[in-house]
Amino acid sequence: MTKKIKLRSLLIGGFFTLLFVVLISKVYWIQVVEASWLLGEAEKKWETDKVLTPVRGSILDRNNKVLAVEATSYTIALNPKMIDGYHIAENVTQGLAEILKESDVTKPTLVNKIRERATKMKPDGTDFAVYTEIRNEGWKIEKEKADQVRTLISELQTKLKLSAKANVGITILEDKKRYYPGETLASHILGYTNKEGEAAIGLELKLDQTLKGVPGMLSYEKDGKGVELPDSKINFKPAQDGNNVRLTIDKNIQFYLENALEKVNDKWHPKSLTAIAVDPQTMEILGMANTPTFNPNTYWTIKDQSDFKNNAVASRYEPGSTFKLVTLAATVEEGLFNPNEMYQSGMIRVEDRELHDHNRVGWGKISFLDGLKRSSNVAFVKLGIEKLTSPKLKDYITKFGFDQKTNIDMPNEVSGLIDMKYPSEFATATYGQGKVVVTAIQQTAAYAAMANGGKLMWPHIVKDIVDPKTGKSIQSFAPQVVRQVVSEKTAKLVTGYLEQVVSDQEIGTGKLAFMEDYRVAGKTGTANLVLPGEKTYSTDSWVISFIGYAPAENPRILVTLIADQPDLGGNYHLGGQVLAPAFKEIVGESLQYMGVASNKQTKMVTKPANKLTVPNFADVTSESAKATAKESGLSLEVFGKGAKVVDQFPKAGTEILSTQRIYVAMQTVDEMPLPNLVGRSLRDAVETCSFFKVDCQTAGEGYVSDQATTGEGEGRSVTLQLKPLSDKSSTASSSTPTPSPTPASNTKTEAQRSTAKKTP
């Protein structure tokens, strides 16, 4: 018995001894062997890391007008469990559907979508969910809609007899999004960033590395409840905001382009329209537009992806007669073009192929200059093949850069296709058909070479990269000459011949582009389309084009216009009427805006704008302020009654153009009513609203025709109705337009549809 007890005690003692050894070994392993790893894992649990998102850089026009900017947005989130508890699912559904509806989404569809979100269950189906978002309609919405949702929340709180701070199951989350204040303005240039903040197309994508900045980081230690520990280790790396990008485009000229294209589109219904405006001396892009267009603020509403395509750089086409520039310039450069030499128009045979003028029978025996004016194909076959010869023709096509990309600083550029092999293909190439396929930007660069003295230049749209904090340029992009394609003498002669194409009101094919105020050089083009899947040309579908520049004696602007398959009713003779009016409108408005003198001596022309520094008007009398402004050549507008100036805009020391107005207040702006803005340009009206700290909403484009002010004090807002000056009814029902201070600004309308900020 004793022996058994001893054995049992020995076994029990041995077991506990072994257990103790195992425990000691485990403690040693944890505290010594794995100590550093476990400590690292614990620190990870204790630490909270926050990514600090940088502000994406803005995109500006050449005058620092905002084209794309980071803005506050709002996202609508729902708590289905709370909504069910209050039994207001249908109230929430109908209310939000009315606020969030968009033109492309029918309300019943949206109602069903929101109802599904408002009554959403947890994945296991045991209870209602506590969080869900309404995408895309309720995701990153603008302030106006967020305010309407706040009103809905207030109404529901009243209905349920809840306090103003009570949660009814609708939450408005503040967020950031990319905002394009011009809406469709320059959309094909800018592209867009999607709702996740990722660059998608256009310059947003091309310049993403420059714009997006570098994220920062904040980390600190916390306890189990997530509260920061005293004396915790804090690591902070600030976010580096993205740089701003200043473009070469001018917001006003961009508006002139888009406004003119809209009129062409309404009248002729082409498949697409393309317009490019450049300074031919530098090849800086002043404007670039396409139809169909899109609004990057609501990019998801576009159903046809081709609407996003920038045809100015990403599409090729047979140019037709605008390509005759190459043949003309080459023969002038080689001394082979005699404007008075006669030839037989109508038809010419190249090997076994007959090539005809556009009227097939021709105009009898005419001079080569008349052949240019009438856009005779036969004349250019004789010039290009019989006089210049095919090898030299191809050399000049290459010199003008049609066999390669221009390397414009925009995405998705394609190259032209030059592929002539047989004599007949070289012959049709002399007048821009057959084996010659080019891009609009290539054509623009070629014509600019004639306007600037024979230099083929690099087209570019980015002027410089700007530090968002200092406003100073970090990197600039100067004009670049690619090569001298013809002599300055040749370029001047060609310009003279192209001017006659427009000025000859009897036979010039470009006569409808003639302007009384400015000398215009230009060329029309009408190219038959190749039938899809075939090798023959259509008899009733054309690509119509016009390229011209002005003033011919010292070109300041060059405009390329292309209409793909306008509705001509089968009559190509109407082609000249499609784009000439648009060209005249764009160039006329642009040159006046730029302050370029008219050929008419009786026409008053304002001087080009210079950069000036704003004086300090603080604590001076109105008479003294006016005298200082007059001496500096600035436009000054005085508001209110008082002894001395109490506020001004822009601030002293700001660098502005001489065409920009200065505003001073003799008393606090909150105490004064908003002045009459009827007759003012959008820029002047928006600046005045900003100075008076009044929220400004605009409708339409052009000049102010009516205004309606609501609210008081800091809550004041005004709605401005805009109409073009050409609309005679624009001020018919309104009071007399506010006279401009002296000297008057020569700035016309701006294509801006944004809300004026309260802070100037």
From TrEMBL:
Give the principal location in a single coarse category: membrane
Record keywords = Membrane
Name the CDD domains for this protein: PASTA_Pbp2x-like_1
Instruction: Pinpoint the PASTA domain residues.
Output: 608-666
Taking the record's annotation, the residue ranges forming a coiled coil are none
According to the UniProt record, where is the region Disordered? Answer: 704-760
Q: Which domain of life is it from?
A: Bacteria
Cellular localization per UniProt: Membrane
Q: Write out the similarity annotation.
A: Belongs to the transpeptidase family.
Q: What name appears for this protein in its UniProt entry?
A: PASTA domain-containing protein
Source organism of the structure: Paenibacillus phytorum
